[in-house]
Amino acid sequence: MRRLRTGAAGLALTAALSLVATACNANGAPSTSGTTPAGTPTAAAPSSSPAPRPTPTAPQLSLQVLGSYPSPVWVGPAPGDRRHLFLALRRGRVLQLDADGRRLRTLLDLQDEVSTGAEQGLLSIAFDPAYARNRRLYVNYTDQAGDTQVVAYTVVRGRAVRPQRLLAIHQPYPNHNGGLVLFDRTGMLLVGMGDGGNAGDPENRAQDLDSLLGKILRIHPRTGRPAPGNPYARSPYVWALGLRQPWRFTFDTNGDLYLGDVGQQDLEEINVVPPRLQAGANYGWSVYEGTARFKEDAQFTPGGPLIAPALTYSHAEGGCSVTVGEVYRGQDIPWLRGRLVFGDYCAGDLLAVGRTRAGLGAVADLGVQAQALQAFGRDPRGELLVLTVDTLARLVPGG
Fold it and tell me: How many domains does one find in the chain?
């Protein structure tokens, strides 16, 4: 069984990058605050304390299979619609289902436009918060050239039509595409971008503000232009940086961001970041992998708070690719409410952890296996959905 280690959620490696030898403001301009205070470490990762090994938590839970689908990557309802689910398949289709997972129709078919090698494909969708009024749907996929496309569609009579390209980003390799599109609480669209692939971020893109790779981008959903309030004048699309492969992230109702960054060779990590530290946040890759130094010659890009992982685990103890799920806010499993549910593609065990004032608490093993875990979602009632490589299921109480 894996040993998971927790640290302080949202802990900055230093109070801000003004503690690094070359201090800067969040817009990338030189700071007037002077040099690093004497004796201040240059963003060394904090130590983390071992958490107890996960133990099964009563009452018993199980997965209720709702359907079998090829390579599902995203599932959820549209705002204001309590009768349907929508399911995105990596090969390029978005399906409309009933609330129990039965297929009704194809909402969007991009199979002729999507590349599906390595980690490519249709990677996620997002519904506009005002979908009931404007019928706008957003998709993130890799095109036939392997490049990222973020495209908005308008849904008319059960079909997604009138595509509007918002972003097109060249991908140098077929892996580490990121792929999540997710709305923040201000109504702006976040786009998760991996470091572009290969191994070890060979071109150091994650810390390079001249690249959009290894970042979370924040755009206006109507125009695709940089969202107002973005922190870096030099790179106006960038909301956060220092990421390797941010496959999935989610917000809780209080605005806390839970972000999983898939590791390179040793460590998987989950970050928990309160709203005050999200703009300009630097997650450390490839200077660090988790809490371990990765590149001795790499340097942090000045500009914002350096975020230490709230939870890490080692590949040597099982697991290979972390998947952050949802903070459970449903009704059917009261004791799980308020805990983040997450898992790992290789390990398959579903785990939960709660937020505490100091960081994250003990990790609970839910006693449920989801082999080849892909992603999580919610149904219209807020109950947790689980996607594996070929299955849509719901987490339910009982054996």
Answer: 1
